[in-house]
Amino acid sequence: MVNATLLELLGQELDELWGKKIELILPIASRIFYQTHFFPLLKMHGKAEEIYFSLKSKQGNHIPVLVNGMRREKAGSFINECIFIPIHQRIQYEDEILKAKKVAEAATIAQKQADKALYCAKEQGRNQSVIFSY
């Protein structure tokens, strides 16, 4: 089953996805992850939460999402229900945090080097002091 929100996100029509397997909308890396991690989690535990995937739009763009999934039995067969939460802004936010962290780390290193240079200059000044006596 596919809802209108997912169809809009992917740029797809209902007849393009109805009855198809989820792998159709997954890029290769996400497809491998789905088959080796996500699906086994659903089978073993009946659910999987906050899993990072990318979906593939009709135009071929990758759409980063978090996925929550639940496996249910219905009329003698199993159905995997998934909720996809787009996380474009989260990735941008995390990138900004990483950049700020690198800037802060570089500033800390520069401060330590400046402190060391100042200490060395003071020590050198003490060692070169001349005492005059009359």
Outline the structure in words:
- 51% of the residues lie in helices and 25% in strands.
- It has four helices and three strands.
- The chain has helices spanning 4-10, 14-17, 28-45, 88-127; strands at 47-56, 62-74, 77-86.
- Strands 1-2-3 form a three-stranded antiparallel beta sheet, sandwiched between helices.
- A hairpin with a 5-residue loop joins strand 1 (47-56) and strand 2.
Low-confidence stretches: none
Q: Indicate the mean pLDDT.
A: 88
Strand content: 15-25%
How much helix is in the residues?
Answer: 40-55%
The SS-based structural class is: alpha+beta
Task: Sum up the overall morphology in one term.
Answer: elongated
Total number of beta strands: 3
* SS element count, helices: 4
Major sheet size, sense and barrel closure: 3 strands, antiparallel
User: Assembly type of the shown chains?
Assistant: single chain
| Estimated radius of gyration | 28 Å
Order of helices and strands: HHHEEEH
Spatial order of the strands forming the largest sheet:
1-2-3
Q: Could you give the distance between the termini?
A: 100 Å
